[in-house]
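Morning!

As promised:
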Amino acid sequence: MSFDWPTLLPLIFAGLMGLAILIYVILDGFDLGIGILFAAAEDTEQDTMIAAIGPFWDANETWLVLAVGLLLVAFPLAHGTILTALYIPVFVLLVGLILRGVAFDFRAKVPAGRKHRWNRIFFLGSVIASLAQGYMLGVYVLGLDVGPGGMAFGALVALCLAAAYAAMGAAWVIYKTEGDLQKKAVLWLRMALVLTALGMVAVSLATPFASARIFDKWFVWPAMLYLSPLPILSAVLFLWLWRQTFHLPKPDDRHALLPFLTLAAIFTLGFAGLAWSFYPFVVPDRLTIWQAASAPESLAVILVGTVVVLPIIIFYSFFAYRVFGGKATDLTYD
Amino acid sequence: MDPLILSRIQFGANISFHILFPAITIALGWVLLFFKLRYNATGDSAWMRAYFTWVKVFALSFAMGVVSGVTMSFQFGTNWPGYMETVGNIAGPLLAYEILTAFFLEAAFLGIMLFGFRRVSNRVHTLATVLVAGGTTLSAFWIIALNSWMQTPAGFEIRDGVAHATDWWAVVFNPSMPYRLVHMLLASGLTVSFLIAGLSALRYLYGDRSESMWKALRTGVFAAAILIPIQIFAGDQHGLNTLEHQPQKIAAMEANWNTGPNVPLVLFALPDEAAKENRFELTIPDGASLILRHSAGGIVPGLNDYAGNHPPVFPVFWGFRIMVGTGLLMLVVSWSAAFFLKRRHSLPKPLALVMVPMALSGWLATLAGWYTTEIGRQPWLVTGVLRTADAVGPVAGSHVALSLAVYLILYVLLLIAYLGVLVHLALKAAKDGDTSPLPGVMNRPLSQPVAQPGETS
């Protein structure tokens, strides 16, 4: 592999796209998770939970726009292939995201009697969007297999990803709230962790067995040795987090952010594993990132903007999180 | 069922639904900034009440715009893979810059603008409003650049069937871009002006005479009265630009079949494409030649010169007439209202009654205008480069039919809910009048309504 621009640029953009997806999954993961947990929360708790994500969700969803935008602009061929193969699940995802996104605003503005309806829609939209994302992940992992086997596996991953999001949501509630709701969230986290772990194991096992190429990338010496930290570290973090759920919340609210950070680390490890499995393909076993990439000069134009703007985005995102830092209180427009 | 026509209807429905909300947020951000700056300058809390009423409309419109926009970004791939495969090298960077420079900016500071009033200083809150308004406008800049490039492509070459940029400046500032951008920004300004004027008129009809109602009403009416003549001029310039670069679109807009001088202006007609003539025509002699060429003998292009290569005439012809008709109505209504507010310091009830439905006139004109220009680009997706029929994906018609049906139901329900909330917010504001308590800014307490004797707070 030579290190000239036509080789490097698609690689850089694959990395950026992966980063955008990972950030999206972590950030909107807790938004969607809180939506899923809505079903288990009381009326007043729901308001607090919304207050914990209200100022952020929009920016969080923008990472999905960036991810699909990068797929669209950097790998146009893959964009078409993947999205046409996943036409129905993408459509379901979009309906879920539409419902979730507008319910946020409607529930706060409609006459009091109609609020319940929008709370239900918020829950429904979050569940639909999470399931659709999990299903798409499952089908993608099996090489865009849309036969009965692929669909069954997709359904399993859908459930597990929804559980993983619920765990993220619970962890965020632990960080942003106090009192009874916080205690409740610890229980939610414990329950969701079981399904999350199951899902990660399922995807980790299915990926190599679905493709001989991926199998050979993992189970050869010495790659096995270098890669072993990924599953081992994930397992350790899982077990540690599981233990923590028996001690939270701690006096003075110590370590309230730890569950969230731990889950984010687990997501990152899982994501790194997936990235290793599929590299260099963007459409599994069909299109590599170089075959699917746009013209280098167009990528260069985008890269210049990205390098300048991305640090600024990250900076002001942190600023926004800081402004709304601390425990969530009632969210008002004034 | 034919996936091509279904995909077109689906994208058309999607983008029609989508544009309603940016049409509001682009200009409403600046109006909110105006309210905020007036408050900063005068300390009059009525400005802040107007701000809080309208910032809720902004938040809701923004959310509707975001979710429908996300849907479109996916539909490029699900329904139109040929689009990015052919012109991805051009469209990609423009979309990427929109996401990077505009979407994140809006999204991050929206939270502070909406909920941060008590958490940041007044100065930072004003700055957040500026950044959100700037973000929406920047977003309009990039997407209009891309849309205009599809209408009048420039600064590129075709290599192996794929477009490659040769001059980015020419790509962004392609021939129709400045005209379209100005036309659209003004359209947004008018949409918001009439929305504010209309909902304030509704409050007025419900007996609200509060300071915040008057301030919003006057802002809406005067902005509309100022913007509408500018828009008529800008629209005319845009039309002349179209005549130069997309004559077949002008021919369809005027329903003119034969190229030649002394072309009449068709006021009413039912264009018949099979017979290549207009039925039930009502015309003004030499009108089209005068408008387009500024002389009775001016040559106006005719559809017969573009056989098989011109857009469907009926929707383009009527879309244009609905837009212009709405614009003229806007002129009459806004100038009458401005006259009464300025000279008589009052608003006659009948006029207020007319202004309420006119709250949505901006939507009507914007949609009609977009239909004119977008259908007017057909049969091309990118003029001269890519035909719409060649970009559609291999998805089964039944799948598209299913998604289209669900989207349509969803959009209708959401639109009803949205309009319901607008009316609800207006009536609630009318009920509260000037008595709703106002919170303090972090470093600048707002004056509170004086408590009535005997009341404890």
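The mean pLDDT of chain A is 85.

Hope this helps with the figure draft.
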